[in-house]
Amino acid sequence: MVKNAAIFFDRDGVLIEAPLDKFKKPISIKYKDEIKILNDVEKICKYYEKKYYLIMITNQPDVSRKNNSKENIEEINLELKSKLKLDDIYVCYCDTDTCPNRKPNPGMIFKAQKKYNLNLKNSYFIGDRWRDVDASNEAGCSSIFLNYNYNEALNSKPNFTIKNLNEVLNIIKWKEQF
Length: 178
What we know:
The protein has a six-stranded parallel sheet, with helices on both faces. The protein is globular, with a radius of gyration of 15 Å. It is an alpha/beta fold. It is built from five helices and six strands, in the order E-H-E-H-E-H-E-H-E-E-H.
């Protein structure tokens, strides 16, 4: 089977647990030994690995903010790539929304599209924040919003809203029928 679409995953809050700060917003872990892969992630990856490219798209501004090292972030990401058999990882270390790669901008998605010759209309982006939904919508992917009721509003409407990752299986199976 020739793949021409992807499932894009945000990292913190979608692939792995993300602790919350005092404002009830997710924050990134700092070290590889803090990784806690969320329920159903491995099942989703295994189920779709033959039909879709599995690609992680993540903002990691803690490097620019001097709150973590690039080496720590890369260790975490490589561990996830290995454990989940991800095809690729795209990371933006910037702390400014003027960077075309920093979500909500779709630059990382477009880089993956070019590299893998992806049909973005047949691709999905699973995220837990407004930045993920905006980037997905801007790129033309189906946005799947994992709603944790964080203390922040969405800027644009996602195609699908879910409460747990297991619902992804039903959404993609349903949409593939049309």
